[in-house]
Amino acid sequence: MALDPTALSGEAQEFLTERHLATLTTLRPDGRPHVCAIAFTWNNTTGRALIITRVNSVKVRNVLAHGDNARAVVAQVDGLRWLALEGPAQIIRDSKSVAEAVARYAERYRVPSENPERVVIAIKVDCILGRV
User: 127 lies in which domain range?
Assistant: First the structure.
């Protein structure tokens, strides 16, 4: 079922704060999908899914390769509950935004180790599919 990213139910918002891992799908330069396990956070105010990662990771390179046309999907599953968050993806490098994403990550999962090469993949969600 398609859900409105600007009007998620309380159950959907709750599901996005529970401690679950997810998958991130980006597209390689040749169009083939690249899927990897990730941890992410959801910013309900901005409607963005945030993934902290290394600047030289494959997922970052994939987003950069597609420039303004980059899209990505984060999918979280727990039993019969699932949500897939899809939208345009961009790489965020400024220290304030990276620190905010790290703080969100620490709140949902754990404090991550220091990483001077950390960036954020931000997905501005424009399509949500799922069942919660």
Answer: 2-131
- DSSP character string of 40-58: -EEETTTTEEEEEEETTSH
Between CA 119 and CA 128 the distance in angstroms is 24
Q: Enumerate residues 6+ apart whose C-beta is below 8 A from 116.
A: none
CATH of the domain at 86: 2.30.110.10
Sequential pLDDT tens for the chain (132 residues)? 666 777 788 899 999 999 999 999 999 999 999 999 999 999 998 999 999 999 999 999 999 999 999 999 999 999 999 999 999 999 999 999 999 999 999 999 999 998 999 999 999 999 999 999
pTM of this prediction? 0.93
* DSSP designation for 121: E
